[in-house]
Design brief:
It contains 17 helices and 14 strands. The protein is α/β, with parallel strands linked by helices and 429 residues long. It is elongated. The model has no long low-confidence stretch (mean pLDDT 97). The structure holds uridine-5'-diphosphate-glucuronic acid (UGA). Residues 121, 151-155, 208, 211, 215, 249-251, 253, 255-258, 260-261, 319-320 line the site of uridine-5'-diphosphate-glucuronic acid.
Amino acid sequence: MRVAVIGTGYVGLVTGVVLAQLGNHVICVDNDPEKVKKLRQGIPPIYEPDVEDLLKKGLAAGFLCISDSIEEAAENSDIIMIAVGTPPGFDGAPDMTAVKAVASEIAKSIKHYTVIVNKSTVPVGSGDVVEKILLDAGVKPDMFDVVSNPEFLREGSAVYDTLHPDRIVIGAKSKEAADKLVELYHPLGSPVHITDLASAELIKYASNSFLATKISFINAISRICELSGANVGDVAKGMGADRRIGDQFLQAGLGWGGSCLPKDVQGLIKTGERLGYNFELLQAVSDINEDQTANFVRRLERRLGGFEEKTIGLLGLAFKPNTDDIRDAKSLVIIKEILSKGGKVRASDPIAEKNVRQVFPQITYLKSAYEVAKGSDALLLVTEWSEFRGLDWDMIALLLKQKIVFDGRRVYDRGALEKSGIEYHTIGS
Ligand code: UGA
């Protein structure tokens, strides 16, 4: 099939390279000339496993091309996917400016029947907004259909998730449009859920908000564990064994970050407000998340007797492993708090360092956990990269100024650290 994907961020680029790999003719469009230039050379603007490989293969095989022109893309496609960013606006509701601008451009370019797919995470009702933009621009109703086809990929495993989705959600008003997408995704062999537009749009927000709720729930339980002497790992295991609950997203830690969960939780709260529903549960989910990191930092501060003149070593800066994304990363909150109270920070991350450097040029960036540990008053695990899992604790104990480790991701074995003379603190036990 002939597909155009507008926007080459995580969702757009991954979707584009995967669809090309499946044998579709794909045009990926971006309005950033620098990105277009690099993409044409096979260099992705994001770090994501397997993307570079698929990009190069798609370009070489002629199934993928990169363009800066929506007009060119519209002329040569039967399906146009809108995958531009919807960052939180000043009030927390998603900013739809880019989606609307792309819809207006499509309206100017459309010459044959086209299925226009909202792949960006957009609030319920956005499909109608896009439809209205086209109709207002004079495009005839029989020239297009708008479909909602939300994406459920995770950063760090985006290509795998796109190739093996648990479900494909297609929200459409017309059967013809829904069928086109069913055909497009047929090679994946995944279950397809066809719904109306609004339901598909809401499935995305409800899914991300439910995942955030699960994490905040277990994090709240972790606090009860700390107060009662229970172990949140055992509690989560016992809970997760109930198939009605499931064992995923029950890993207690510093809380959820990234470009999606925080934005979508706020987005759904705002949608509720707009429609006249006060989603108090989600506000609590968000508050628990913030306090989870704050409480961890308070515990560290108490243990060290304040941050003044102290050096804290951070392992991991990205919001989660296998990505260089630092949007809403817990490391940023922790660094800010330590610096504001007179402490110094040494940090290491396999790939996110360059991004954090832009925000905090004043901290010391190092290449390994051992360099970070050297002279630090405490070592904090913030992102559970595999590089930070199998450490030599005798060596770390020798390097640390004070033998204190705070594990924000519940990765380390208390016994192993204590054997090396290290005082171990974690979350929920
Ligand atoms: C999330 C969803 O998982 C995807 O399905 C969705 O497509 C994506 O948002 C999106 O809307 O684009 P992502 O933000 O890449 O994916 O990352 P997750 O793996 O969901 O992790 C989010 C955060 O939750 C991370 O900070 C992670 O450390 C934290 N987390 C996750 C926990 O603290 N505990 C867990 O058990 C799981």
